[in-house]
UniProtKB/TrEMBL annotation:
Residues annotated as binding Mg(2+): 254
Oligomeric and partner information: Tetramer of two alpha and two beta subunits.
Record keyword ATP-binding present: yes
Cofactor-binding details, from the entry: Binds 2 magnesium ions per tetramer.
Compartment list: Cytoplasm
PROSITE patterns in the cross-refs: AA_TRNA_LIGASE_II
EC number of the protein: 6.1.1.20
Protein name: Phenylalanine--tRNA ligase alpha subunit
HAMAP family documented for this protein: Phe_tRNA_synth_alpha1
InterPro entries listed in its UniProt record: aa-tRNA-synth_II, aa-tRNA-synth_II/BPL/LPL, Phe-tRNA-synth_IIc_asu, Phe-tRNA_ligase_II_N, Phe_tRNA_ligase_alpha1_bac, Phenylalanyl-tRNA_Synthase, tRNA-bd_arm
Species of the source: Clostridium muellerianum
């Protein structure tokens, strides 16, 4: 028995000596120390030994097991070490190599311009209001004095969710929502996305941005409207800019107007940007229609107000001399990096 153990030990150590990878070590472990391993078999057969022999053989067997376990552990350790050193040698990091450049996004010029506009109105004491982009027909049209079948609906190609729900075509519904919630004095702007079912081309996008403004209080007149919007135009486009108001029609204001500003490129002489006109149309505006005030529970005999709304994309395109609105929505970093 003792000789057999000695033999097993020597064979195993010999095999271990000649082993050069960890999977071979695993097979050796199984072969000798596994459940059906040679050493395990011997330990199992110890019942057949005499009472004197049993502890002696048992001791030797345990010693052999310990020797083999240690040898295998050391062998595996040595291999791991060698593999690690090889890897370190092969994977030398060249710290002089340039890194991989990460492209970082940039704020869209639309957002930048919106921020500028908000800043101007905030310094004039306006608050910022929000409303849903999926809007009730009532707020987008009815309450703004645009009943069903009104021709003004035809001008705004509307995405209908169903008969009563639309994607808002303008930021004007936020006027109504604000007047329902707050009592005058009201002085708010409301920038946001609006939707129209327009085919995409260089000047049309089914999604674009508008900014609405509303002031309601006692004794508000058209002079307040002009003063506010002229100041805005000067802050936005420069002190030299001149403005003019042309009569227009909007169902929710009376009287209504459109405001033009002298072209910021040629200063009014006429150029490519203003198409030779010298003037650029900036926004629509007017005195809030008494019907709209009434719809919102505000007495038009006591209060009056003015409102305005403009397309932010147009403003951005004018400001940066862009000729294609699609550039604002394509997230092309080569374009965005220029602003
Ligand atoms: N909502 C109008 C449009 O989309 C713009 C507008 C015009 C808003 C006059 C106003 C306003 O508040 O008074 O064409």
């Amino acid at each position: 028995m003792k000789e057999k153990l000695e033999l097993i030990k020597n064979n195993a150590l010999e095999e271990i000596k000649n082993t050069s990878n960890s999977s071979e070590f695993e097979s050796i472990r199984v072969k000798y120390l596994g459940k059906k391993g040679e050493l395990t078999q011997i330990l199992r057969g110890m019942g057949a030994l005499s009472a004197e022999e049993r502890p002696i053989v048992g001791k030797i067997a345990n010693e052999v097991r310990a020797v083999l376990e240690t040898a295998i552990e050391e062998g595996i350790g040595a291999i791991k070490n060698r593999e690690k050193n090889e890897r370190l040698k092969n994977e030398v990091i060249d710290i002089s190599m340039p890194g991989i450049k990460q492209t970082i996004g940039k704020r869209n010029p639309l957002e930048q311009t919106l921020d500028e506009m908000k800043e101007i109105f905030i310094t004039m004491g306006f608050t910022i209001e929000e409303g849903p982009e999926v809007e009730l027909d009532y707020y987008n049209f009815e309450a703004l004095n645009i009943p069903k079948n009104h021709p003004a609906r035809g001008e705004q190609d509307t995405f209908y969710i169903n008969d009563n729900i639309v994607l808002r075509t303008q930021t004007s519904p936020i006027q109504v929502r604000t007047m329902e919630k707050q009592k005058p004095p009201i002085k708010m702007i409301s920038p946001g996305k609006v939707y129209r079912s327009d085919a995409v081309d260089a000047t049309h996008s089914p999604i674009f941005y508008q900014m609405e403004g509303l002031v309601v209080d006692k004794g508000i007149t058209f002079a307040d409207l002009k003063g506010t919007l002229e100041l805005f135009a000067k802050k936005m486009l420069g002190d030299k800019v001149k403005t003019k108001f042309r009569p227009h029609h909007f169902p929710f204001t009376e009287p209504s107007a459109e405001m033009d500003a002298t072209c910021f490129v040629c200063g009014g002489e006429g150029c490519r940007v203003c198409k030779g006109e010298g003037w650029i149309e900036l926004l629509g505006c007017g005195m809030v229609h008494p019907e709209v005030l009434k719809n919102c529970g505000i007495d038009p005999e006591v209060y009056s107000g003015f409102a305005f709304g403009f397309g932010v994309d147009r403003m951005v395109m004018l400001k940066y001399g862009l000729d294609d609105i699609r550039q604002l929505y394509e997230s092309d970093m080569r374009f965005l990096d220029q602003f």
